[in-house]
Every structure is written in C-alpha cells, then in structure tokens.
Amino acid sequence: MSESEMCYHVPVLLRESLDGLNIQSSGVYVDVTFGGGGHSREILNCLGADGRLYGFDQDADAEQNILADPRFVFVRSNFRFLYNFMRYHDEVGEVCGLLADLGVSSHHFDAKERGFSFRFDGALDMRMNSRAGRTAADVLNAYTESQLADLFYLYGELKVSRRLAAFLVKRRQEKKFETIEDLLEAVKPFTGKDKEKKFLAQVFQALRIEVNDEMRALREMLQQALLVLKPGGRLVVITYHSLEDRLVKNFLKTGNFEGKSEQDFYGNVQSPFRLVHNKVIVPSAEEVERNPRSRSAKLRIAERL
Q1: Which helix (H) or strand (E) holds 197?
Q2: Average pLDDT, the chain
Q3: Is-contact 136 124, C-beta < 8 A?
Q4: CA-to-CA distance for 224 and 221, rounded, in angstroms?
Q5: Which among 10, 13, 9, 11 is positioned nearest to 301, based on CA atoms?
Q6: Where does residue 128 rank: exposed (0-12), middle (13-18), buried (19+ CB within 10 A)?
Q7: Cβ distance 69 to 54 under 8 Å?
Q8: For residue 269, is pLDDT > 50?
Q9: pLDDT band at residue 104 under the 50/70/90 scheme
Q10: What is the structure's pLDDT at 106?
Q11: Rg for the chain (alpha carbons), in Å?
C-alpha cells in the first residue's frame, strides 16, 4: 500500500471484507466507496485477467487514487446511482460482490478546509462532493428551528435537540454561521468538560449526514444492490454508527428497512438474502490499536438468493 493511500485512509477490516466477498478470479465486483483505493487494490490483486472492478466515489480528492489497471473502472458518482451506471456498463445481474465501507475517510477528518472535524477551524462545509450541494453553514443558517431539532435528534441522537435548535436559531440572528469556530462557540453552553468531545461528535455527525443526505443515499444503494447482484453474489457492508447499522442489519435480514420479516407457510423467513455470518464482525484489538478510527466498525455479509 502506497504512503499516499495510507495517508488518505487506512482500510478497515480489510482481510475480513475480502473473505466476505468470496472473490472469483473472473468475477465482476463493485467498491461503492473507493476513497483511498485500499480495498479496491486488494480486490484487484485477487482478480484474474478477466475480472472487473468498478469503483464509485463522488469526491474529487479520491480521483488522485485512481488505479491504473485495465480491469478497473472509476465512476465519478454517488453510490445512490449504482443501478444506472451498472446498466450503462451492461452489468445488471452480473455483479459477484459489492463492498461498501461507509466510514468517513481519515483524509476528510484531517483536511481542515473540508470542515468535517471540530479539531480545526475552517469553513463549515462537510460536503463529500465539494463541487455541488449545500454546506453545513447553509443548513445552520437556513433550516427552521423544527428542522434543526429533527436532524439533531434523528442523526445525532441528541436529547437536547430542541433546546440546541432554538439556541442556534437565536444565535444566527446576531451573526450567520460561517466557520467551525462559530459553531463551537455557539454550542459551548451545552458542552460539559467531561462529555465535550462526544457531544461535538454527535453535532458534527448530524450535520454531515444531513448535508450529504447519507441515510437516504444508503437506502437507495442497498435497494439497487439487490438488483445488480447475481444469485450467489455477496453484499459486504461496514458501518460506523447505529443509524447505518440498523438499516443494513434490517435489510440484510428481511429485505426491508423496518426489519419486518415475512414468513412462508412453514414459518421460514422470506428474504432475498442469506446471512453469511449470524454474528456481526468487529475489528480485533490489534487492529483497533493500530487504527483507532476502526473501533466503531461493524461488518455484515449476506449472499443474494
């Protein structure tokens, strides 16, 4: 793995996710979260001359990691458009395995100009695709008090969401939100010393999810994965917070996001997937020590029936 790739993002649960894909040398595979290319590079190493790999990423920064390999196709797009691009390439129903590593890359957290981390000052941006869409500042300055309360409650799981929303709306009347420092200063009354980092992480997570429409994009991608995978194809998903994991867990178990299981006459659960592991896979203590950002990762694997 190159030094630049390591700086961009250390692949999480690399060996476990590759094993989960059950790679066939001549198969068609999709990495819908290309990022630094760590997972993709290893998938290519497992493929023969006839194998193919598609890598999706909407972030312009990821393009510097494009793999110079005739078996690799880079798709400059959000993974919510998975079906359209696979149809364009005549791969619908042909995909042997799809990998989604839903974590925000180390590169995004460490690039202060992107606005993903409260460790640096900079513009309140948080867009994965910095070429389009609204920023975190836009959300804070334009959303109603009710909309802000909902997003902090749903995506940040903050119990003080209503009070926080009311306070931020009042604050923006005095001065519009532009920088990370503006936001940190505004939320100080809500952060006790002992839980400051956790609270800020929840606020930033909520804004990031909203800015990038992450939950709806994830739902759309999972539904489309069902269409592009061939029977026996594997869906391998790494999640990092409970909101994502709940969606993925329900979908892989029942084929829907509510987790409502339909049963046949004999009481067997009807699902388009077979779970490869009944138990979720988490990083080893050694991996967490080597890469602390992997500590919240959960890997789930299912096979298309």
Answers
A1: helix 196-211
A2: 93
A3: yes
A4: 5
A5: 13
A6: buried
A7: no
A8: yes
A9: confident
A10: 64
A11: 20
DSSP assignment letter at 288: H
Alpha-carbon distance of 134 to 265, in angstroms, equals: 49
Q: Is it the case that residue 144 has pLDDT exceeding 90? A: yes
| Phi, psi of 135, rounded to the nearest 5 degrees | -100, 175
In Å, how far are 186, 190, 191, 200, 202 from 194, measured between CA atoms?
Answer: 18, 12, 8, 12, 15
Hey, is 235 helix, strand or coil?
strand
E strand or H helix at 75: strand 72-75
- Collapsed DSSP state (helix, strand, coil) of residue 248: helix
Determine contact, residues 81/217, Cβ cutoff 8 Å: no
Q: Classify domain 3-106+214-304 at the CATH topology level.
A: Rossmann fold (3.40.50)
Q: What is the pLDDT of residues 34-93, one digit of tens each?
A: 999 999 999 999 999 999 999 999 999 999 999 999 999 999 999 999 999 999 999 999
Q: Which of 176, 167, 61 is nearest to 124 (CA)?
A: 176
Rounded CA-CA distance 222/248 in Å is 8
* Residue corresponding to tokens 């409650």: 153
Instruction: Copy the structure tokens of residue 133.
Output: 């869409």
pTM for this prediction: 0.93
User: CA distances (Å), 104 to each of 58, 211, 225, 276, in order?
Assistant: 13, 13, 21, 26
DSSP 233: E
Q: pLDDT > 70: what percent of the chain?
A: 94
Residues 6+ apart with CB under 8 A from 94: 28, 228, 230
CB atoms within 10 A of CB 45: 9
CATH fold of 130-211 reads: DNA polymerase; domain 1 (1.10.150)
